[in-house]
Structures are given as structure tokens and as C-alpha cells.
Design a protein that fits this description.
- The protein is mainly beta.
- The protein has a single domain, classed as Jelly Rolls, CATH 2.60.120.
- It contains two helices and 13 strands; from the N terminus they run ββββαβββββββββα.
- The strands form three sheets. It has a six-stranded antiparallel beta sheet with strand order 1-2-10-7-12-5, with no helix packed on it. The protein has a five-stranded antiparallel beta sheet with strand order 9-8-11-6-13, with no helix packed on it. A two-stranded antiparallel ribbon has the order 3-4.
- A hairpin with a 6-residue loop joins strand 1 and strand 2.
- The chain starts with a strand and ends in a 19-residue tail after the last helix.
């Protein structure tokens, strides 16, 4: 397993060891001791699975009082996955990182609390897995509009299928509910 910091040191790209042969492949999806040894959480309390069609965009979401760290991956299909630093006072506030996750590249991305998260589907469909460090709290859900010009995410296309609630999200500059930056020693 290889763990690489992105342009945001707290957002980590995980490249698991994949063992291929004529029958297919084998990989560990998660191993608490190995992940902790690489500076990632070893405890997750909730797993989620979503399926999205081509052109679906989900996000940018976060929780404030019960913030979730998320270890995300794609088991089939391909997505463009994005994390945005929304921590007030952070030296990277409003900056984003994006990576392609797919069933073929086997990559995982760890998005820590304090980051908004979203993705768009690039393939006909995509099965997306989330391991979360905290339970989902419906009354604690917030978000930032996906095409906020103040953030400037370079999405692969310009027209997406979004939920009504995602269409109504505010810009980062208009949000009253943002987490505070707390430096963490690694």
C-alpha cells in the first residue's frame, strides 16, 4: 500500500497493493493497522454505498457538529472526486483537490473533517463506497454549491444532474456554518 499526500497534506491518496493473475485480482479494501501506520484513521463507524449514472454530481457536502472523515473508493465505473478545504483560518481555505477514482485504478481518497466533498460520474454508472469516521446526522448536513466561482473547481464538464437540495447550496463566501481550522501534528 502506498499513501501519498495531495496538494492538501491532510487529504491522502491511497494506492492499495493489488495482486493480479489470470483469475482476476485481490486487494485489501481496509486494514486498520496499516492505515493507522500511514497516518489515516483506523476506526470507521459507518459504510455507505451509492450508485450514480453518467453526469450525476453529488456534493459538495459536509457535517459541522459531527464532522465525518471519509475514505472513498469506486468499485465499478469512474468518478472525478473533489475535496475543498472549508476550515476558516486554514492557509488553504477555499482551495480544492480533485482525483479520478475508478474500479480499474483501485485508488482511495481520504477526506478529513473540515473539507467539503463531492464527485461527478464519468462512466455510464459508478458504484461509490464511503467509510465514515462518524455517523451521519441528518440535521447536521451542510454544503457548498458545486460551481462556486470563488473556489473554481475544474470539473470535467459543465452540465450535471444534481438533486434539488444540491442546486440550492450557497457559495462558500455566503455560508454561515463553517468549521474552524485546527492544525494537526502528523
Amino acid at each position: 500500500m502506498k499513501v501519498v499526500a495531495t496538494s492538501h497534506p491532510e487529504v491522502m491518496l491511497v494506492e492499495p497493493a493489488v495482486f493480479n493473475d489470470a483469475r482476476g485480482f485481490f486487494k485489501e479494501m481496509f486494514h486498520a493497522e496499516k492505515y493507522q501506520a500511514n497516518g489515516l484513521p483506523g476506526v470507521f463507524v459507518q459504510d455507505n454505498h451509492s450508485r450514480s449514472a453518467r453526469g450525476v454530481l453529488r456534493g459538495l457536502h459536509y457535517q459541522l457538529e459531527q464532522p465525518q472523515g471519509k475514505l472513498v473508493s469506486v468499485v465499478s465505473g469512474e468518478v472525478f472526486d473533489v475535496a475543498v478545504d472549508i476550515r476558516q483560518g486554514s492557509p488553504r481555505f477555499g482551495q480544492w483537490v480533485g482525483v479520478v477514482l475508478s474500479g480499474d485504478n483501485h485508488r482511495q481518497l481520504y477526506i478529513p473533517p473540515g473539507f467539503a466533498h463531492g464527485f461527478c460520474t464519468l462512466s455510464e454508472s459508478a458504484d461509490f463506497l464511503y467509510k465514515c469516521t462518524e455517523f451521519y446526522a441528518p440535521g447536521d448536513e451542510f454544503g457548498i454549491i458545486w460551481n462556486d466561482p470563488g473556489i473554481g473547481i475544474e470539473w470535467p464538464q459543465t452540465d450535471y444532474l444534481l438533486s434539488e437540495s444540491d442546486r440550492a447550496l450557497p457559495r462558500l463566501s455566503d455560508s454561515d456554518h463553517l468549521p474552524a481550522y485546527r492544525p494537526v501534528d502528523r
